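re the bet — no i am not wrong, look at it urself. input seq straight from the record:
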Amino acid sequence: MLGVSKSAVSKWLTRVDKPATTSSVAGTVQDDGGGVVSAPSLDTDPTYRLLDRLLARLGKLEDAEPIFTPSRRIPRAGVLLAVPALTHSGIFSVAEEVYGHIGPAFYGLRTTMMALLLMALLRIKRPEGLKERAPVDLGRVLGLDRGPEVKTLRRKLTRLAAYGRAEVFGRTLAQRRVARRGRALGFLYLDGHVRVYHGNRRLPKAHVTQMRMSLPATTDYWINDTHGDPLFVVTAEFNEGLVQMLPALAAEIRSLVGPRRRVTVVFDRGGWSPKLFAKLIKARFDILTYRKGRWKHIPATQFVQCAKRIDGRTVRYALNDRNVRLLKGRLCLRQITR
């Protein structure tokens, strides 16, 4: 019925019950002190992971080992091209550092994180979207016999949320990125994106452009580096505008880059506030944004014709560069008009 002999199962269970020394050599068993082990899979058929599922059921497996086999016509296998970048980002090591593990399971912490990341790449926005996909297809790109179903993934997310460490996870991951890509943090781009809210809390409604209707929504404020790669994200209610959020975002940026480094923050007209500009500059931030409101007309004679080589072609434009004073002369900024 199991496809293996009873003696083979008993020998393996006896093996994992005994304490073992930690080793990085393939084929050894690692005991975390609680009787749960991480070991290479004994299943020989990647499409039939019965032994691993049995061990997980008995509480003797922390996470199933991914096993791949040569195949043809695997749906959406192109997402595997992103795996090296995901591994290099440090997201799996940070998840292990912050969460440890989520108990004995076939779909452990690493598999759950990988499943969520691949879902994002496949444009599956919510666990319910898995109902429209064959579990076997997702399982093959995960290196398993089948991917997690909706109730399983929901249960994993609930367990992760119960830890209450999402903020610690995001900050630790951001610290890794700062340490690795410090030079790319000279300019940080701040932008807010409206996201439809599907939870049970009462939130104000906002106009969702994609759906052309008003729905409960939140705003994700993304902070990206010079190359456009995300540093961290903060979620707030929709009525929290960029002016209200900028001080908190600036404080988070300062905690990541250190107290002395000057950073230029770039944002759109939603963050226009001369009083806020003065506070940011005092906190050793430089600002780059669009002018908002009324301003004096600049005569055409005060513009200079400029040319710039961009992406192999010459771009010509008229430029005016001057200093302007705000807050009754207390704040002096450089204004560049094209």
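see?? The longest strand covers residues 313-326. told u. also The chain has ten helices and eleven strands. so pay up
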